[in-house]
């Protein structure tokens, strides 16, 4: 098969040629956009799921849907070592520009509030070079979104942005990837701001994406967050959707898969979108001709596994310290007896991990906490942990 015409695209956040299995989420979001723009009450949205299920791809697709409706949009990726102020200011700056409000003075005022919110990050006594500005020409609006209390400031900021959007009969969408990495104060402020916006009927929504424990992070910050957001768990694809993710791009290049090949692909990928793209690329490159057969899948399997081992599993494993790697391997060993090939995250009790290592659970807290911060594991319930990457335990056990 011609590698130049290979349609499959494994990559972090890279949109696949066929966004299969997400029609329900896209259709539901179109309804949200229309309702918000008309002043109807609607909740902000949170997407959760493991690594490799396509959360970022779907987040970008939802943003594109908002852009097509004429909304102002901005996107940011949360980082555990960064305050929300600067990236959010940059995102809102873009959103306001996209709105295209007909009154320059109104736009300038809101941009000045955004600038005020951003510069408060440096503090009132900071030197001029430290007062970061997201390229906004409008003068700072003093006394608005600059109190230093991020909850007060964020409510004021999004209220002003929402008012600008309401003037033109459209909305503003703030899209936040890796939302679980926001700091506690920022999470609390964001929940409070969404609550205020909902009560006032302003056309601003937040669409966040994060790991499976994100709802617990939000709930720990504000008890009402369970009613504030609409939670959608993004999981692996059904067999039909996985087949479509392979068949539709191949058809565009005048190629086909046999039914046995599609069955073999699903057995190998378990329907995880990233795995589908990795296997699809390898199978395409190694198959001699169309239609692609189950034998072609078997031949390409080792190369696809190498791709996953290096680009998907290995890159994450390399981020761990020696002590953290010991903890990860112990998790894999503790999960192996119960995994049975069905549990992709290897959920285990922390006490079982300690037993494998022959240590007291308390002595392992630093390694566990560091892995949680790095996003390699998560805690869905008290006393239990799991990998954020599907089949990571299987990869670790294969390393020996």
TrEMBL record:
A family per Pfam: AAA_16
Segments of this protein annotated with the region Disordered: 1-20
Coiled coil: none
InterPro entries for this protein: AAA_16, Cyt_c-like_dom, P-loop_NTPase
Organism, scientific name: Nocardioides albidus
Lineage, broadest ranks: Bacteria, Bacillati, Actinomycetota, Actinomycetes, Propionibacteriales
Keywords associated with the record: ATP-binding, Heme, Iron, Metal-binding, Nucleotide-binding
SUPFAM superfamilies recorded: P-loop containing nucleoside triphosphate hydrolases
An MF annotation (GO) of this entry: heme binding
Cytochrome c domain span: 166-317
Identification of the protein by name: ATP-binding protein
């Amino acid at each position: 098969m011609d590698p130049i015409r290979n349609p499959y695209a494994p990559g972090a956040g890279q949109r696949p040629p066929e966004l299969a299995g997400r029609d329900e989420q896209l259709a539901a979001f179109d309804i949200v956009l229309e309702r918000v723009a008309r002043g109807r009450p609607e909740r902000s949205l949170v997407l959760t799921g493991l690594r490799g299920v396509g959360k970022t791809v779907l987040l970008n697709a939802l943003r594109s849907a908002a852009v097509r409706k004429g909304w102002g949009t901005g996107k940011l990726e949360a980082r555990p070592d960064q305050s929300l102020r600067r990236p959010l200011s940059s995102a809102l700056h873009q959103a306001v520009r996209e709105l295209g409000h007909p009154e320059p003075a109104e736009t300038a005022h809101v941009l000045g509030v955004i600038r005020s919110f951003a510069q408060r990050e440096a503090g009132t006594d900071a030197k001029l070079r430290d007062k970061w500005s997201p390229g906004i020409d409008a003068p700072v609006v003093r006394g608005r979104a600059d109190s230093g209390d991020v909850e007060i400031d964020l409510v004021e900021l999004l209220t002003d942005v929402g008012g600008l959007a309401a003037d033109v009969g459209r909305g503003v969408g703030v899209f936040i990837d890796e939302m679980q990495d926001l700091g506690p104060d920022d999470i609390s402020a964001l929940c409070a701001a969404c609550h205020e916006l909902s009560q006032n009927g302003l056309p601003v929504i937040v669409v966040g994406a994060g790991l499976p424990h994100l709802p617990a992070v939000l709930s720990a910050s504000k008890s009402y967050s369970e009613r504030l957001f609409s939670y959608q768990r993004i999981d692996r694809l059904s067999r039909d959707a996985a087949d479509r993710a392979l068949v539709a791009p191949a058809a565009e290049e005048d190629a086909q898969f046999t039914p046995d090949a599609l069955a073999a692909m699903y057995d190998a990928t378990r329907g995880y979108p990233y795995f589908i793209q990795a296997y699809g690329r390898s199978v395409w490159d190694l198959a001699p001709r169309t239609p692609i057969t189950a034998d072609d899948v078997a031949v390409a399997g080792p190369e696809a596994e190498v791709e996953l081992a290096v680009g998907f599993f290995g890159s994450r494993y390399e981020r761990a310290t020696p002590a953290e790697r010991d903890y990860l391997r112990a998790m894999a060993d503790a999960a192996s007896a119960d995994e049975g090939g069905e549990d992709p995250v290897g959920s285990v009790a922390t006490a079982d991990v300690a037993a494998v290592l022959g240590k007291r659970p308390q002595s392992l807290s630093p390694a566990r906490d560091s892995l949680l911060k790095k996003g390699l594991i998560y805690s869905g319930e008290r006393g239990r942990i799991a990998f954020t990457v599907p089949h990571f335990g299987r990869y670790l056990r294969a390393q020996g």
